[in-house]
């Protein structure tokens, strides 16, 4: 204990880092299950080499934790928190390779104060393991390149592969590495080093399960992640809302001070390169190689395409290290002040729910819905359950009811990874079903009064029952329409 207090006294910034993590840990029990949590938990309960939306690393980790500690919302949240805490420690080790002791702690405070780290700590997404393996990969590549430790080429190849097995964004790791070597006058010779190519071969080998799953399933995941989005970008339509929305997301995730520093040093280095043809030091160039393609690359898309808030997250790892080289004490102080305000507001929303969320992307109401649906099925035995909102309601009901719940593949519509769970709809022919449909806006207690034509086409008759209304007259109010569907006749 004395050693710990001495460490805090020696590095006061450590108290800020630990304080933010303690805050997140204390907030965990108040966090309900998000739809993403339930969906990626579904991954882990249906083990596969890969999955339709993403590779399966987050699902595997949730499966491991549930096998050890059991199935509960808290176990899911703790899994995210522990992995993200490991990311913070890995980030500390990475920062120590580039910064002085004083600036290391600046970088740690900057990173720990972001909403970005809070989101990773609270919500199961592929980004949770991606950021961990991304951070480890850059550390190992540094040792391979700058310290000339050949075995780290092997380790880096594996961790880059594990990052790709978390999320496809990790393809930017080998791209960043090669970009650095191309622009580096000192280390360009490594482009012909066998160790580089051994590392890249190991990267590809580690990602083999993802490629094999895609090969077996007509490259469905790769097509989903690329073809549709490429088509949208190629239309080249100016979308101001997408641009300003991306800026708003980054201001929120990074805190405005850190985001402003990102913009400032990005402009500075790009201007030097394009106007003065001057590149930074080798170590800074290395950091920029893993920052620019992701941060600047995705930002260039924002005027034409809706770039999701998490796409730029990997760039934050080296971006924060560069920011720590520039930020002064006054700006760091304001970063902390704004961050504390943001986090207090976040905690107030989580605990007291001051602002109603008119969306299914919420952590409240799902367990209560499951209890009501269970009662409903007692009244209507031998029915199966399904929903049609992508994955959200179906995944949540699966988690809390611990039974099979179907998605819109029941009526022949694409249903993300629900299409790949091996369900044979013919086995349900002739049975009855209960269809749960979320009323996101919840403007009245009335029934919906209309039936989805896709549902009507697949059942002999459909009768709307009384809606399920939860936590009425509160900020946590949720409403779900309920339909009793008779004699299922799946369309071929």
From TrEMBL:
Designated name of the protein: ArnT family glycosyltransferase
InterPro entries in UniProt: LipidA_mod_glycosyltrf_83, RgtA/B/C-like
Organism of derivation: Pseudotenacibaculum haliotis
GO molecular function: glycosyltransferase activity
Enzyme Commission number: 2.4.-.-
Cellular compartments annotated: Cell membrane
Keyword presence, Membrane: yes
Pfam families tied to this protein: PMT_2 (PF13231)
Keywords: Cell membrane, Glycosyltransferase, Membrane, Transferase, Transmembrane, Transmembrane helix
Catalytic EC class: transferase
Glycosyltransferase RgtA/B/C/D-like domain sequence ranges: 53-213
Transmembrane segments: 12-34, 74-92, 129-145, 151-183, 195-213, 243-265, 285-305, 311-327, 334-355
Topological category with respect to the lipid bilayer: Multi-pass membrane protein
């Amino acid at each position: 204990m004395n050693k710990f207090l001495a460490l805090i006294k020696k590095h006061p910034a450590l108290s800020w880092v630990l304080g933010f993590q303690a805050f997140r840990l204390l907030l965990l029990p108040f966090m309900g299950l998000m739809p993403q949590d339930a969906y990626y938990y579904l991954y882990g309960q249906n083990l596969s080499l890969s999955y339709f939306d993403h590779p399966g690393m987050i699902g595997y980790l949730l499966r491991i934790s549930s096998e050890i500690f059991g199935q509960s919302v808290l176990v899911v949240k703790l899994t995210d928190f522990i992995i993200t805490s490991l990311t913070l420690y890995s980030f500390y080790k990475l920062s120590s390779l580039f910064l002085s002791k004083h600036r290391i702690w600046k970088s740690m405070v900057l990173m720990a104060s972001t909403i970005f780290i809070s989101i990773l700590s609270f919500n199961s997404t592929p980004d949770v393991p991606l950021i961990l393996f991304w951070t480890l990969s850059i550390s190992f590549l540094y040792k391979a390149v700058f310290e000339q430790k050949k075995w780290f080429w092997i380790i880096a190849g594996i961790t880059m592969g594990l990052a790709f097995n978390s999320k496809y964004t990790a393809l930017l790791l080998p791209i960043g590495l090669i970009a650095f070597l191309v622009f580096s006058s000192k280390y360009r010779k490594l482009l012909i080093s066998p160790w580089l190519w051994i590392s890249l071969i190991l990267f590809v080998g580690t990602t083999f399960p993802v490629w094999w799953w895609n090969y077996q399933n007509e490259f469905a995941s790769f097509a989903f992640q690329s073809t549709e989005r490429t088509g949208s970008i190629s239309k080249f339509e100016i979308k101001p809302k997408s641009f300003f929305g991306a800026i708003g997301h980054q201001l929120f995730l990074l805190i405005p001070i850190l985001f402003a520093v990102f913009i400032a040093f990005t402009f500075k280095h790009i201007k030097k390169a394009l106007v003065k043809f001057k590149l930074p030091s080798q170590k800074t160039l290395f950091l920029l190689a893993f920052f620019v393609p992701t941060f600047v690359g995705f930002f260039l898309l924002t005027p034409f395409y809706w770039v999701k808030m998490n796409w730029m997250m990997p760039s934050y790892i080296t971006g924060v290290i560069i920011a720590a080289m520039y930020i002064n004490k006054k700006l760091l102080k304001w970063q902390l002040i704004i961050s504390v305000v943001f986090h207090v507001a976040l905690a107030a929303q989580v605990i007291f729910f001051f602002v109603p969320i008119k969306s299914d992307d919420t952590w409240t109401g799902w367990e209560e819905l499951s209890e009501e649906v269970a009662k409903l099925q007692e009244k209507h035995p031998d029915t199966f359950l399904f929903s049609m909102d992508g994955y959200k309601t179906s995944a949540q009901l699966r988690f809390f009811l611990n039974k099979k719940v179907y998605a819109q593949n029941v009526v022949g519509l694409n249903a993300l990874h629900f299409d790949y769970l091996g369900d044979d709809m013919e086995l349900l022919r002739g049975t009855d079903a209960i269809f749960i449909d979320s009323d996101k806006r919840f403007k009245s207690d009335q029934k919906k009064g209309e039936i989805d034509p896709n549902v009507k086409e697949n059942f002999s008759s459909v009768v709307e029952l009384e809606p399920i209304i939860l936590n009425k007259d509160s900020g946590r109010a949720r409403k779900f329409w309920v339909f009793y569907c008779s004699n299922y006749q799946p369309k071929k």
